[in-house]
Amino acid sequence: MRKFSEPGRNFLSKVWKEYEPIRVDGIVVAAECKHCARNICAERKHGTSSLRKHLKRCRERKKVLRVSGQLSASIVSADGVAMGLWTFNQALARRELMRMIVLHELAFSLVEYDGFRRFVSSLNPSFKMICRKTVKEDCMKAFKEEKRILQRMFQNSKSKISLTTDLWTSNQTVGYICITAHFIDEEWKQQKRIVKFAAMETPHTGAAMFKIIVNFIREWNIEDNLFAVTLDNASNNGAMMKLLKAHLLLKKMLPGGGKLFHQRCAAHVINLICQAGLNFLGTVINMIRETVKYIRSSPSRKEKFQEIVEQHGVSCGRTQSPDVPTRWNSTYMMIDIAKEYRRVFDSLAIQDKQYTFKPSFEHWENAEYVCRLLKVFYEATNVISGTKYPTANLYFHEMWKVKPTLEQQHYEDDSEMGTTVKYMKRKFRRYWKMTWLSLCIPVILDPQFKLKYIEFRFGLEFGNEAAAMIAKIKNVFQGLFNEYLQLNDNGSDPMSQGGDDDMVVSGEDPMVDWDQHVTLTARSTNLDSTELDSFLSKVPIRRSDQFNILAWWQTNSGEYPTLSRMAAAILAAPASAVASESAFSTGKRVLSDFRSRMTATTLEALVCLQDWIRANTNTQRSFASVHDIIMDLQDIED
Questions:
Q1: Residue closest to 398 by CA, chosen among 355, 419, 428
Q2: Which of 392, 452, 400, 402 is nearest to 572 (CA)?
Q3: Closest Cα partner for 439 from 392, 480, 488?
Q4: Residue 294: which domain range?
Q5: Is residue 112 in a domain?
Q6: Of all helices (H) and strands (E), which one includes residue 39?
Q7: What is the mean pLDDT of the chain?
């Protein structure tokens, strides 16, 4: 029996199972019937007799009992055991209705459809159907409640939070910014939550973005709990990050002096590089697109194509399909599959004079060359844009695969292909120069590699320059470790915790700050030698594709308390600002016509609440990004 926490009152009567208490100043003065919502006097001096009498007369309860009796008599489990008694709860049913509408992007007006009302009534005639306005109110109420829960969780969390941002535009040119928080929870699981979807003033400058993000950080009270922000290389993002970094550094709220605060989105850079390769293949891409359209334009052409496929014995196991021009991965896949049907296209051109889109030998050679490059980028993007596992520690390895693949490409400098490859190399080198340091830090926290791997790779690749690069990495990592070392379990300044007995000095002593510094330095040196040195000196564990880095740190957090807190912060920062479903997209994020008509307040509530429901229940759909959430919704407000 649940208790309602009124001093001296136990609420042991079974009658309370069918009522919700109504309090005034913490004292229960009435009870609301769960069946008919009628309020009955329930002051302590009156006992429960009036509550019992009402239950005997309540018509809605009688309906429930009748249905419940039928259910309990007819429903059994798979092994033939009768199920327990079912009790109807109007409030719970309303919450489930709200959840269904938000989760599956259904219109608020669904509750006013005659067919839906009849269907619900056939399931349970006791349910009191509500109107669209009430459904919307329930959604907004749930959003506010879940938001408060998430805010408290962030404020009480010992782990740092990293953010990603994404920009959207409505068909009325209204701009929106989507902010997603990434963190490692208390069970050492990777988590992400959409926490803001707000309209932006025009123009979408860095200052405008800075204003929204600062207001969000203050509203959620996480200024001192931020670790990094991952975003693409747009100029307004760069301007915003300069303002935000300066703002937080001024308040001394960024770990490591903010050296790891600005993370560049890997997927964005890869998109730019891959677009260069695809632009070079513009002619052959158009030929393949037209070929696919031609073959699929009629049943007879499909049959003819299949007949030629069988004649040549082609069995690649993949069907030729058209691409989506704004998603480069689909274009890459279309070309890659088309190569398998090269002989079929040649034969089709001979047998069908209307088919005039056959790529030439040179076209195919160029396609073969570019596809070898794109394959590496395709695989890297799939890895670094995951959301169910940390990507920070995988980032370096995927970029290291890309680096030699590009560097080893040689083509005649004066050819069009040579110009394209040079452009791709230049883009990657510029990106590597900006990000190599932030790529290396998470690798040190991977027990499969540690600092030894960085020293090994850099020694082979950079020769005499490696020593200076390694020294810089060590300096940043050591500085960050020292900062975490000075944090106790609740994240407060250890100076406020007192010190050794010999630290007791007069409050007027001008050297007290020096004494504190010496004590903390000695303490840091001792802990450093026993924790950081211990971790780095041990031989890296054997690599495994099934290795779970978060599980390893959870298991070893007792041995490495400071490093484990660092790991939770560093590993939470994503390598990509967008999920895998959007990582290959080169198009703008544009709201649908339906979404563009929705108020900003309602839009934010529904986008965030749906994301939170999915996260809390592990509900999976064929899409997971905010792009798909919005583009696939029906008109909810109509």
A1: 428
A2: 392
A3: 392
A4: 269-385
A5: no
A6: strand 39-41
A7: 83
